[in-house]
Automatic annotation (TrEMBL):
This is Flagellar motor switch protein FliM. Residues 254-322 form the Flagellar motor switch protein FliN-like C-terminal domain. It is found in: Bacterial flagellum basal body; Cell membrane. PANTHER family: FLAGELLAR MOTOR SWITCH PROTEIN FLIM (PTHR30034), YOP PROTEINS TRANSLOCATION PROTEIN Q (PTHR30034:SF6).
């Protein structure tokens, strides 16, 4: 009863029951303790926290918006997609929840290991196919094996949609999804163990007058390497503010004081390891430059200037005679 707000009539009825002896305070206490007991099914192991589920929801809400724009352009009709639910369930339960004949896209998401499923309701899949082939967007209401032409059309449609998935996940990890297979019978899928926990993101999709569901199934083993990134703390760390003008000036000042190696290169020479091992004081090594050729000045290991050797106050020195002989423009 803790946390419940009772109306005045309910309070009066409760007080009346206690005063007449129909219910005692001990009975109320026992009932309250009974409600604190929760049944836990070990077959439905919860591998993701509520915080991580919220992060997955946020990622796929962005994915839904991107898909809405993409499918509207490709199908040339009104398309609306929204996240209906995000649940973690055993893989076996997910397989039982989808139709026996449906359209299942199986794709990989390097650098993550494993496969991800995108199950498209037959009503929606055939509506998409009809629109792509010039129809008005009607579904036959049944699922048959796709012909090679139909399979190629659907493959191209969904392969291009993965660019949106890549963009939606870019705040967490840079993935490179690609389609590996299209299946119509979920019973043939042997992707992971039946008891393995998966996250199922369900989307409501409306195409013209047709509506249905798209489900994305992501096994826990696929997301396991980046589970720590699915926390609010990680999102807050990645959304850092740009430095102020004062901070930029401090950084610039410190960069100007950073030491750089400046090396005047007289030339290069190649020799065998045997000759190198027998080098002694007084030996002459022939370089690949003439005595009157300019020297190369390397700044931080990058050739930036040419110079001529000389002497300044009884010390060896070089005089810059030209700039920029190598490296990138951005290195200046």
């Amino acid at each position: 009863m803790a946390g419940d707000i009772l109306s005045q009539s309910e309070i009066d009825a409760l007080l009346s029951a206690i005063s007449t002896g129909e219910m005692s305070a001990e009975d109320m206490k026992k009932e309250d303790e009974t409600r604190k007991v929760k049944v836990y099914d070990f077959k439905r192991a919860l591998r993701f926290s509520k915080d991580q589920i919220r992060s997955l929801t946020r990622i796929h809400e962005n994915f839904a918006r991107l898909l809405t724009t993409y499918f509207s352009a490709q199908l040339r009709t009104y398309v609306q997609i929204s996240v209906a639910s995000v649940d973690q369930i055993p893989f076996e339960e997910f397989i039982r929840s989808i139709p026996n004949m449906t359209l299942i896209n199986i794709f990989e998401v390097p650098p993550l290991d494993g496969n991800i499923l995108m199950e498209v309701n037959p009503n929606i899949a055939y509506t998409m196919l009809d629109r792509m082939m010039g129809g008005v967007g009607e579904s036959p209401g049944k699922v048959d094996n796709l012909t090679e032409i139909e399979l190629k059309i659907m493959t191209n449609l969904f392969e291009r949609s993965f660019d949106n998935l890549r963009e939606a996940w870019s705040g967490i990890i840079d993935i490179d999804p690609f389609l590996t297979e299209i299946e119509v019978n979920p019973q043939f899928l042997q992707m992971i163990s039946p008891n393995e926990t998966v996250v199922v993101i369900s989307f409501n999709i409306i195409i013209g007058e047709s509506s249905g569901m798209i489900n994305i199934c992501i096994p826990h083993v696929v997301l396991e390497p980046i589970v720590p990134n699915l926390s609010v703390r990680y999102w807050m760390q990645t959304n850092k503010k740009e430095p102020t003008t004062e901070q930029s000036m401090v950084i610039e000042k410190r960069l100007k004081q950073a030491p750089l190696s400046v090396i005047a290169e007289l030339g290069n020479a190649e020799m065998t390891i045997e000759d190198f091992l027998y080098l002694q004081a007084g030996d002459v090594v022939k370089l690949d430059r003439k005595i009157d050729d300019p020297l190369v000045i390397n700044i931080g290991g990058i050739p930036k200037f040419t110079a001529q050797p000389g002497q300044l106050k009884n010390k060896m020195a070089v005089q810059i005679i030209d700039t920029k002989i190598g490296g990138d423009e951005d290195d200046e």
